[in-house]
Design a protein that fits this description.
By secondary structure, the chain is of the alpha+beta class. The protein contains six helices and eight strands, in the order E-E-E-E-H-E-E-H-E-E-H-H-H-H. The protein has two domains: 93 residues, Methyl-cpg-binding Protein 2, Chain A (2-Layer Sandwich), CATH 3.30.890; 92 residues, no CATH class. A four-stranded antiparallel beta sheet has the order 1-2-3-4. A two-stranded antiparallel sheet has the order 5-6. Strand 7 and strand 8 form a beta hairpin. The longest helix has 29 residues. About 2% of the residues have low confidence.
C-alpha cells in the first residue's frame, strides 16, 4: 500500500476541482485514508457538509459519495424513493414531510369554558407492575455523526482526537470516531459509571442486538486503577505548572 499523498481531478465535481488521498502514518488508525477536496481557488474541504455549504444550490450532492469521489447509483435510487425527504447539509438535519405531525384544527366553540359533570368514578388503575417505562434507545445511533466535526468561525474543521490504546471499539463497523462520540455522550448524559461493554467481542460481532448494552459506550470494558488516576493527576499538575510559569513570564515582560 502506498504511503504517499495522491491528488487528481474529480470528474464528479465541476472542472478544476481536485480530490486528495492522504494515508495516516501514526496511531491506531495508521494506514487509513483521509479524503480531502480542493476548489479551483485552492480552498480545502474535509467533509461533505462543508463541501455542500460552499457549493450551495449550484450543485446537488445528494448522490455524491464523498469517500470515492463518484456518483453513487445506490444513493440515486434511494433518493428517488425518498422524494418527501430532504437533507440539509449545513445543519445536519433530515427533514421528512411524512414525519411531521398533523395540526389539529379546533373549532372556536371548544375554546370556551366547559363544566364537567362526573356521572360515575373511573375504575381504570395505573399499572406499576413493571416500574417506570423508559423510552427505548437506538443501537449505534452515534454512527449518524460520522464525518461531522466542529468548525471554527472561518468554517475550518478541527482535527479529530486520537484515543488511548486501551479504548478499543466493539460492534460491526465501529471505528475510533464513533467510539469517541459514544464516550463523550456517555460522560455527558449518563448518570451511571462508564465501564464499556461487558459482553465478549465475538458475541457483540455475532449478534449486537442481543448482547449490546445501549447505556454504555461502544468500547470494550475498561477499568481505571489508582495508578491511572495518579498519573493523570500528575499530568494535570504539570500542565498547570507550565501555565503558571507562562503567566508569570508574560507579567514580567509587560512590566
Amino acid at each position: 500500500m502506498s504511503c504517499e499523498k495522491r491528488k487528481f481531478e474529480c470528474t464528479a465535481l465541476p472542472k478544476g476541482w481536485q480530490r486528495e488521498e492522504v494515508p495516516r502514518k501514526t496511531g491506531l488508525s495508521a494506514g487509513k485514508i483521509d479524503v480531502y477536496y480542493y476548489s479551483p481557488d485552492g480552498k480545502k474541504f474535509r467533509s461533505k457538509p462543508q463541501l455542500a455549504r460552499y457549493l450551495g444550490n449550484t450543485l446537488d450532492l445528494a448522490t455524491f459519495d464523498f469517500r470515492s469521489g463518484k456518483v453513487n447509483s445506490l444513493l440515486m435510487r434511494k433518493n428517488k424513493k425518498q422524494r418527501g425527504t430532504q437533507f440539509d447539509y449545513s445543519r445536519g438535519i433530515r427533514n421528512d414531510a411524512s414525519l411531521v405531525p398533523p395540526i389539529r384544527q379546533t373549532a372556536s366553540i371548544f375554546k370556551q369554558p366547559v363544566t364537567v359533570y362526573k356521572m360515575q368514578e373511573g375504575k381504570v388503575k395505573t399499572d406499576f407492575k413493571h416500574g417506570t417505562q423508559e423510552k427505548p434507545k437506538q443501537l449505534f445511533w452515534e454512527k449518524r455523526l460520522e464525518g461531522l466535526r466542529a468548525c471554527d468561525a472561518d468554517g475550518t474543521e478541527f482535527d479529530g482526537m486520537e484515543l488511548p490504546r486501551v479504548l478499543k471499539p466493539v460492534g460491526p463497523h465501529v471505528g475510533e470516531e464513533t467510539v469517541l462520540q459514544s464516550v463523550a455522550t456517555a460522560l455527558h448524559v449518563s448518570a451511571q459509571p462508564v465501564t464499556g461493554q461487558t459482553g465478549s467481542r465475538s458475541a457483540l460481532e455475532r449478534n449486537s442486538g442481543v448482547f449490546l448494552n445501549p447505556d454504555q459506550p461502544l468500547m470494550q470494558a475498561v477499568s481505571v486503577a489508582d495508578d491511572d488516576i495518579k498519573r493523570q493527576e500528575e499530568r494535570v499538575q504539570a500542565a498547570r505548572k507550565k501555565l503558571q510559569d507562562a503567566l508569570k513570564k508574560s507579567l514580567v515582560l509587560a512590566v
